[in-house]
Amino acid sequence: MIPVGQALTWQQFKPHERAGVSSVVMMVALLAPACSPAIGGLLVETCGWRWIFFATLPVAVLTLLLAYRWLNVASTTMASARLLHLPLLTDRLLRFAMIVYLCVPGMFIGISVVGMFYLQNVAQLSPAVAGSLMLPWSIASFVAIMLTGRYFNQLGPRPLIIVGCLLQAAGILFLTNVTLATSHRVLMMIFALMGAGGSLCSSTAQSGAFLTIARRDMPDASALWNLNRQLSFFIGATLLTLLLNALQRVMSLEVAYRWTFIAAAGITLLPLIYAVCLNNRKALLCLKKERP
Fold first, then answer.
1. 203 closest CA partner among 153, 244, 256
2. Residues near 120 by Cβ (< 8 Å), separated by ≥ 6?
3. Which of 82, 88, 172, 247 could form a disulfide with 256 if both were Cys (CB 3.0 to 4.6 A apart)?
4. What fold characterizes domain 2-73+88-290?
5. Interval 161-171: pLDDT, tens
């Protein structure tokens, strides 16, 4: 549903308007990571882990009711179509945005999985307290997304991606120094850095991915984008988990976690290589050309 909805939405707006639209869409998406970890931690502590799955039922029912209320489809038409239009990957901005998603949001998902185990098992935080760290992450993400919506058309993708990569990498590296004595305020700062950097990159990547894509190719580009988006989450979590398991065999658990975080920070910085070579001026010219 996400690729279809994204394609329909993006087709209604010109390229210079999509950064603002992307900010609004991603603001709604922030509600899940802002609320679910803390609520999930409380449910586990008070009601048991099974209630995590029961909690999704009201949201699913509400979605069905809203779809029935808002979507009015008189008829449907079936037609054959290609599964994926791979030649679209020759578009430099789309390809760059996909690389950013693999290396930045993908690594944060991996850190979310590995880091939560680290905070609970090594730093001895309760599930509720560890989950509450997503609140400063969400606040910083909110600010980053708003800044992207405001400055993307003025600055282009390159400077925003560079700053975002550096912020998230810094936050991940700070995790290597977390101990039992680390204050909650420091942990909040770490997650705020990751939230600001990750969301600055993800919102910029989403705003720039379809900048030079023709309107007729938007559904195919949206399918590729969202396939890469889901793969980035899977790859990030799987890669860091496998790396942590491998390192545990040759070093202590705490040191293994630290080297896993260092590797994640290094991968987060990989898009900087591509960003330096990106034709930012061309992207800005494209945005100016589309303005009335």
1. 153
2. 126, 127, 130
3. 247
4. Growth Hormone; Chain: A; (1.20.1250)
5. 999 999 999 99
